[in-house]
Known about the structure:
By secondary structure, the protein is of the alpha/beta class. 31% of the residues lie in helices and 16% in strands. Helix 3 (61-74) links the parallel strand 2 and strand 3 (79-80). The radius of gyration is 17 Å and the shape is globular.
Amino acid sequence: MRTVHVVTHPEATHHVEGVVGGWHDSRLTPAGVRAAVSIARTLRARVPDGAEVELFSSDLRRTRRTAEEVADVFGVRPVLDRRLREKSYGQAGGRPQEWLDRRFVPPPAVGERMDHDEGVEGAETRAELARRVYAAMDDILRRPCAHQIVVTHGGSLTFVVASWIRMPIESAGYVGFRAPSGSITTLREDDFYHNRQVVSLGETCPLDESRHLDESSPLDSARR
């Protein structure tokens, strides 16, 4: 039996400053650090004592700080992987959210969505984001470990889950798995049929103070 615990980092400075996240290297706020501690304790309570645990994290500061709290309770060292980063918003990263909102070109309802140009110079397409997250997850899942923890971002979570259920990238143009900041998504594969389950999506911990994102916004991944 394999269980993958996917953590979306809690509140970071770009959330409270109202600027675009993406590859902008923001830090956790004090509330975000407290939430990271709560996440780590929750994971420690869920993983059996003595179980083998591996920890992987995006290399941005907000995810790396979250992973440090998890690493501390499990006594492991996080493997940093830039492929687990949030979507890059190019020149919009670190700018006011309103700057991106005025320029953002939403994808069409039908037609090409994965390679769609969103109108911001240097921004990744969904296809580019998906390919790197899928590649990171392929490498993680090649490792025979019963409990793996992946610390990433809200926008990247969609493709972590899509890769888990082996959705072809070319079919992922309409997929969106939404989870709040500071949440845990649990994925499990049984060792008989090798079926892959999405056990829970975006659970928040009791002490998490970071669940503030407007999930109704089409640009909410830019805030993660």
